[in-house]
Specification:
380 residues, TIM Barrel, 12 helices
Length: 380
């Protein structure tokens, strides 16, 4: 019998979040690589076993709960020290719920409308694996300023212990967007791809077929952590990989087979690259400066990114580093990227989005041809 998540919430409005919510979740704004992320709703019934909610000890909260009202959340977002109007990429409900769940999507639409009413032209990334309906697209299409991208998460994983949600839901959502969205961009977000689990030639061919309905395709591997592995073991899933590294795992042999199958069909290693291509603008994460990431990008996109790519000055970088409390004596501007020390992701991404230039910590260098991925599958 197909898995049916409980989306019949007891009340017509979301319940308030509990007062003892973990601090990581109670803090509703977080800087992530693809943008300043707003998360004032927590809880999700979809039960994807690899969900990052394991890391917040919140996986057991199946019903979405509201932390603060939408208008207050949006006000906190635009007043955040890291927010820059028309520049900072934004995300919403990508950490602790799915934005298109019943009840949740009303808050999604309201937040997008509030931001759009402010005249903001920032990128807004919305990631979902649930139902995007025609009525949703109608409302999205009314937005006038925000650069909205819907990233439809699809993996083709059929093991219900790992991903109980039927992949046909994502396929239907992509088709709905393809048939009725014009201003709203749509991306096939093919993830997580796991060696030996969902990397068959048949599934790769299916992804290629689906890509024809998207403005771009982004492919990526598994975000693996101790708590995620522990949960997978608890539901009797053999270890997917040996390591639990800080970076996503996508072995070279899997990437090679995907790229061969896609041929000249546009496909991107990085989320921001796919978003940039979909909108016909430069990559806000500055990947153009890093060798071997952009070698699969269409020539037109490379030209767009190259025209916008500019090495920031020391004065500019130091001013930004000072704002986030980094050691100014440890900063180095290299070919294609900036190197800092003793930094957090929040600090690095702020500088990265302000300059359109990659920022790396000296302790975690990006090794050639690995595209910022884990060493598993790339060391031989």
């Amino acid at each position: 019998m197909p898995f049916e998540p409980d989306t019949r919430y007891a009340k017509s409005t979301l319940r308030p979040a509990p007062k003892d919510l973990p601090q990581d979740l109670a803090s509703i704004i977080e800087y992530r690589k693809s943008g300043l992320s707003l998360n004032h709703i927590v809880g999700c019934p979809l039960e994807c076993a690899y969900c990052v909610r394991h890391l917040f000890d919140n996986y057991g909260m199946k019903r979405p709960h509201l932390i603060i009202p939408d208008d207050q959340a949006v006000a906190q977002l635009v007043d955040h020290p890291a927010f820059r109007a028309h520049q900072t990429p934004l995300q919403i409900f990508n950490r602790a719920t799915d934005p298109f769940l019943p009840r949740v999507k009303e808050h999604l639409h309201r937040c997008l409308e509030l931001l759009d009413d402010l005249g903001l032209t920032n990128h807004m990334l919305v990631i979902t694996r649930w139902h995007v309906l025609e009525e949703d697209v109608v409302r999205l299409e009314r937005l006038k300023k925000l650069k909205v991208t819907i990233l439809i998460t699809w993996s083709g994983i059929s093991d219900p212990r790992i991903e109980p949600i039927d992949s046909s839901i994502a396929q239907a959502s992509l088709l709905t967007l393809a048939s009725s969205a014009s201003r709203t961009r749509k991306i096939l977000y093919w993830r997580p791809i796991v060696l030996g689990l969902n990397d068959t030639d048949e599934l790769i061919a299916e992804a290629h077929s689906m890509s024809q309905f998207a403005d771009a395709t982004v492919f990526t591997g598994l975000f693996h952590r101790e708590k995620i592995r522990d949960y997978l073991r608890s539901v009797n899933v053999p270890d997917l990989y040996k390591l639990v590294p800080r970076r996503k795992i996508l072995p070279r042999e899997v990437e090679d087979r995907i790229l061969r199958a896609f041929g000249n069909t546009p496909i991107f290693r990085k989320t921001s690259c796919g978003v940039a291509y979909a909108h016909g603008v430069q990559d806000f994460n500055g990947h153009f400066g890093i060798d071997h990431i952009c070698d699969i990008c269409p020539a037109k996109q490379i030209k767009t990114c190259a025209a916008a790519h500019k090495t920031p000055t020391h004065r500019q970088v130091q001013g930004l580093a000072r704002k986030v409390g980094l050691d100014l004596e440890k900063i180095e501007i290299c070919q294609g990227h900036i190197v800092v020390e003793n930094s957090t992701e929040q600090q690095r991404y702020f500088i990265q989005h302000a300059t359109g230039f990659q920022v790396h910590d000296r302790a975690h260098p990006h090794l050639p041809r690995r595209h910022g991925r884990s060493e598993e599958g790339w060391t031989q």
